[in-house]
Amino acid sequence: MAFDINMIKEVYSKFPERVAAARAVVGRPLTLSEKILYAHLWDEATDKPGGMPSVSYERGNAYVDFAPDRVAMQDATAQMALLQFMQAGKKKVAVPSTTHLDHLIQAKVGATADLQNALNNSSEVFNFLQSVSNKYGIGFWKPGAGIIHQVVLENYAFPGGMMIGTDSHTVNAGGLGMVAIGVGGADAVDVMAGMPWELKFPKLIGVKLTGKLSGWTAPKDVILKVAGIVSAKGGTGAIVEYFGEGAISMSCTG
Question: How far apart are CA 69 and CA 159, in angstroms?
Fold first, then answer.
């Protein structure tokens, strides 16, 4: 299932207007994360995606309805999510969505043997997910087609977009300047069913990077340093946004 170019064009066509409106409401310059968040508001008046910013939301306190562009699911969490979606009475998902069969493949012997073992042990789950995906217009990535967060990055991520995924590594798409957030299955169902996604407006932690990585360091060292400063609890409910010339030396996935 190829990326939805029409959806991406629509996001970009309205992006400048929404950012300008948000900047006027907030009364200050916006970070990239804020621009994306304010550009993906749910319109309460029409009960549809595409709300224009009219309120300045307090970070970490105000509850906001968002309209993500995409949904991604992995095979372990997609089972309950799709069972729940089947009860929504919809003929098709409201936003581009994909199912990726990768988590039920355990690495033990080698790619060929491990894949066959997964097919033998989880065929019922795989067949169910494929059947439901085909019925409701959901992109299907069969076992062996790739790891979800890398497939999403290479095929569906785009700068300025917003997506949610039932996998903690969904944030990998952030390497392309996308707000991508790991969620529970119920959140994914809401968006696939055409409902708003309610979220407490994220706090923002800005990290200015200077210099560049040496041959002895990796982007993960930066993550570990930041985690050591703010702690896991300190990063909860926040977007960590890196900026500065030091970010240039990092790869997209880094």
Answer: 12
